[in-house]
């Protein structure tokens, strides 16, 4: 067990806000629902449940989602009995307060610099989500933000895992949030326009991970949060332990700002390092929660990388993005929650939207209905624009 | 004090500070009674400038702590 870590790290609280469900139970049930079509807003999310009117007005939607998911996770974890100076917040986001930047630039053009809000910077900065969480809960340990595009939340969880594993923190709230859809059209659609014009978005509006007809991702907003604790502390307070984090890894492609390296070389290195960190062999992995964005390049590179590490067909693979769409900097957190709940329920959610598997992809992909499995280590992959690769390995809690 | 002018002033305060209308009274302190921080005050002044088509220099805000003082400043510019 000694991989240079002083402590074992477990997950004791889960919070999630996604278009397929708010809260862990609704979310997991929603993962067996229909495939995503068109931008996935979380219409059910009501900021007034979480913020008074003034706070809501002064907090960008991505930071609102951050705080709300963190609150759900902390409520789920129960009373932590931890010293606030040893409690940390490590939260990810891809684009931060994009809607706020857009709104203020429109105002700048219309009314001039005198009318730009003094709240612009504290609302748009990527660390606003992490800061809002620490302020709300009074957690005074490390409070940092990770920005690695679509791998942000996975890297945040990975860094949080080190903080608890190394003994700096007794508890950490970690995960990620994203609200990049901004508005639906016209001058206020900077997020949609940007992703569409880089040809990353699905032109058909369908999320179809690993399908031969896949044509891009379906954009989503959302957030996910995990409470990580040191194993002994979690046991001493009789916390419900969902899973243990067995290992994590981070690598870079050093290749191209948006395209994955050919053959998924960066992803291969990352998965291998994560397994090494977890001290397990590829054959011990019970399930892979893939990045599976539904873009032509990502899914092929990821499939090739998985085949290289695990052989053909390898362990069952799923992409929840068929249902959730791609929530960018939050995706790794949604997928971590899904991986952990897979372990909890012994069920791998299906890859919605996949009807005709790409003949160049040779994986055992879970489709149709959720597939029962004997809980074992689950590998969760995230790959971000910029060539950032992140992998996490979750395992069932020790008896 | 014209009613219409004060109503307009009050609306700016309610919009920016998100406090109930009945708390916008002359003796109310921005910091102590209306929970307004320095950024709130900057936003409030911007809203006043916009609503009344006036310009308020930063130096004019020195010593302005209450609703009444702020209102007098606005009225002096109309």
Describe the structure.
The complex is a heterodimer of chains A (399) and B (78). Chain A is α/β, with parallel strands linked by helices and 399 residues long. Chain A has 2 domains: 9-236, Thiolase/Chalcone synthase (Peroxisomal Thiolase, Chain A, domain 1, 3-Layer(aba) Sandwich), CATH 3.40.47.10; 248-395, Peroxisomal Thiolase, Chain A, domain 1, CATH 3.40.47.10. Chain A has 14 helices and 14 strands. In chain A, strands 1, 2, 3, 4, 5, 6, 7, 8, 9, 11, 13 and 14 form a 12-stranded mixed β-sheet that branches. In chain A, helix 8 (152-165) crosses helix 14. The longest helix of chain A has 17 residues, at 61-77. The mean pLDDT of chain A is 96. Chain B has 3 helices and no strands. Chain B has helices at 3-17, 38-52, 67-76. The longest helix of chain B is centred in the first third of the chain and has 15 residues, at 3-17. Chain B has a single domain, classed as Orthogonal Bundle (Non-ribosomal Peptide Synthetase Peptidyl Carrier Protein, Chain A). The mean pLDDT of chain B is 94. With 78 residues, chain B is an all-alpha fold. Classes of the chains: A alpha/beta (399), B mainly alpha (78). The A-B interface holds A 52-54, 57, 111, 114-115, 117-119, 122 and B 17-19, 35, 39, 42-43, 46, 49-50.
């Amino acid at each position: 067990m000694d991989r240079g870590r002083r402590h074992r790290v477990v997950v004791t609280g889960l919070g999630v806000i996604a278009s397929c469900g708010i809260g862990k139970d609704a979310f997991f049930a929603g993962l067996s629902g229909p495939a995503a079509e068109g931008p996935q807003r979380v219409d059910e999310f009501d900021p007034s449940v979480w913020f008074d009117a003034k706070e809501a007005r002064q907090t960008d939607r991505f930071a609102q989602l951050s705080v709300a998911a963190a609150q759900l996770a902390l409520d789920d974890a129960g009373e932590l009995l931890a010293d606030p100076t040893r409690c940390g917040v490590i939260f990810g986001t891809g684009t931060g307060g994009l809607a706020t930047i857009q709104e203020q630039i429109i105002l700048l053009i219309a009314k001039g610099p005198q009318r730009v809000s003094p709240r612009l910077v504290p609302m748009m900065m990527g660390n606003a989500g992490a800061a809002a969480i620490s302020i709300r809960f009074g957690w005074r340990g490390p409070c940092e933000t990770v920005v690695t595009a679509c791998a942000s939340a996975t890297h945040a969880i990975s860094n949080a895992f080190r903080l608890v594993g190394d003994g700096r923190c007794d508890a950490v709230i970690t995960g990620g949030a994203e609200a990049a859809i901004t508005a639906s059209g016209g001058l206020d659609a900077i997020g949609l326009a940007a992703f569409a014009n880089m040809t990353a978005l699905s032109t058909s509006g369908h999320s179809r991970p690993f399908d031969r007809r896949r044509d891009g991702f379906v954009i989503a907003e959302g957030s996910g949060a995990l409470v990580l604790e040191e194993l002994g502390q979690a046991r001493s307070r009789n916390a419900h332990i969902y899973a243990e984090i067995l290992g994590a890894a981070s690598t870079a492609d050093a290749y191209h700002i948006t395209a994955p390296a050919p053959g998924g070389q960066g992803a291969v290195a990352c998965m291998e390092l994560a397994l090494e960190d977890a001290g397990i062999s590829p054959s011990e992995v019970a399930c892979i929660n893939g990045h599976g964005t539904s873009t032509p390049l990502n899914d092929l590179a990821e499939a090739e990388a998985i085949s290289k590490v695990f052989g053909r067909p390898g362990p069952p693979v799923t992409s929840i993005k068929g249902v959730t769409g791609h929530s960018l900097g939050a995706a790794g957190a949604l997928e971590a929650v899904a991986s952990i709940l897979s372990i909890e329920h012994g069920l791998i959610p299906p890859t919605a939207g996949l009807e005709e598997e790409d003949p160049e992809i040779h994986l055992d992909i879970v489709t149709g209905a959720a597939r029962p499995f004997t809980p074992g280590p689950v590998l969760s992959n995230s790959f971000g624009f910029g060539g950032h690769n992140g992998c996490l390995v979750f395992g069932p809690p020790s008896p | 004090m014209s009613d219409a002018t004060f109503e307009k002033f009050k609306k700016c305060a309610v919009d920016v500070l998100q406090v109930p209308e009945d708390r916008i009274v002359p003796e109310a302190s921005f910091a102590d009674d209306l929970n307004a921080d320095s950024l709130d005050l900057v936003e409030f002044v911007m809203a006043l400038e916009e609503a009344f088509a006036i310009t308020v220099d930063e130096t004019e805000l020195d010593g302005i702590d209450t609703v009444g003082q702020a209102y007098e400043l606005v009225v002096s510019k109309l």
